[in-house]
Amino acid sequence: MLPRLEADPMHMTTMAPPKLIDWTDQLSVGVPSIDSQHRKLIDLINDLHAAMAAGRGAELLGKTFKGLVHYTLSHFAYEEQLMRQTAFPGLEAHRAEHTRLVDTVQKLQQDWRSGKVAISMEMLWFLKDWVGGHIVGMDKKYGPHVTAAGAR
Length: 152
Prior knowledge:
By secondary structure, the protein is mainly alpha-helical. It has a single domain, classed as Hemerythrin-like (Four Helix Bundle (Hemerythrin (Met), subunit A), Up-down Bundle). Helix content is 66%, strand content 0%. It contains 4 helices and no strands. Helix 1 packs antiparallel against helix 4 and helix 2 packs antiparallel against helix 3. The longest helix is centred in the middle third of the chain and has 28 residues. It starts with 31 loop residues before the first helix and ends with a helix.
């Protein structure tokens, strides 16, 4: 039997918070460039979560949130371009969903800048649920189409 180890506060290390979102094969749309971008979006959300959990200052949270908003906009533009180039029939519905999220996130960002809201776990859960739901519910629909058209 192994001896029981007592916690020694002088030698304890802080552990990183668990990731808010873990990448799984279920999130893959089968298009490597899109999967790579989705992983980056998930990393940015996890970075925001880690910064909050560590009690980082508002400046760092703001920079992380701004980076997430910027990357989301460029990712959506890339997806829409890919769907347009391959004549994906669901482009307009997909674009409307992107617009809805961008409007929501930009409103959150504006409210945060003006001091109306704090970056909160509620906001992170919204992002987590939206990203997971959007990838599984919407993006997986165009994956086979754009792959068949030769997109990588």
